Amino acid sequence: MNEAAGRRAKHEAGGTPIPSGERLRFEDVSVELGGRRILEGVDFEIRPGEVVGLLGRNGAGKTTLLRLASGILHPCVGRVLLGDEAVGTMSRRRLARRVALVPQDLHVAFPFRVGELVLMGRAPHQPLLGLESEHDVELALEALDRFGIAHLAERGIETLSGGERQLVLFARALVQGPAILLLDEPTAFLDLKHRVEVLREVRAFARSGRSALVVSHDLSLAARSCDRIVLLGGGGVAGIGAPAEVLTRENLRDAFGIGVQSFPGPDGGLVVVPDRLEEPSAAE
Predict the structure, then answer these.
(1) Averaged over 181-188, what is the pLDDT?
(2) Looking at the 3D structure of the chain, how many domains does it have?
(3) What is the domain-level CATH number for residue 50?
(4) Which of 97, 143, 163, 222 could cysteine-pair with 53, CB 3.0–4.6 Å?
């Protein structure tokens, strides 16, 4: 067992209790932004132990739902519930102990170093105005090792590539120790190897009894890595269920406005591709 794996085993064995699973529910949620109704009547839940993919065209409301779940936005109608509590009634600190958001990117006002930024994930668990503990530092180091970015610990976050920044943000979220991960296109800037590694971490996170809500534009990877798919379209939920049930030709044409084909992949996955890249001829 390598050093990183040894630290992980120690924490999971008792150093840091894995939080119990909680249900995240969007209960008849509607959202208005800038006087325009973005979403209406959204109603679904994420159960402990599952990874749910959130798909839809640009502007369908995917990121908006993540912001609702993380308490950044509030619905004009309906409720977002974490367990039996409305997210909007919880303090930021208390919510951060249970939910972690991995944004598409991070814009910081100060040139934080990578190690400092990952360690900030422990802030919800520290005393107010308190310093990080030795255990907090160990968790941050373990997360850096896990994603192969320990060598970046002293680098300024502003000097990193988009892919490196995504790995740092994911490491910070895991250090936070949440019951629910909210991920906004977590593999968008990553090469294939790191995409697979990140999705494996998401699957492992769910196997521990926790859950993840993942926004993605990669339909094939979503079908491969998610237990269920929520497809957004027309201002609400256009489909929800197992990937093979939702990612049909008809549903995807309605949601994205183009023709697609899906083929069975290995281990029950799906490969989703557009019908054609050429413009149809006038005769067609």
Answers:
(1) 95
(2) 1
(3) 3.40.50.300
(4) 222
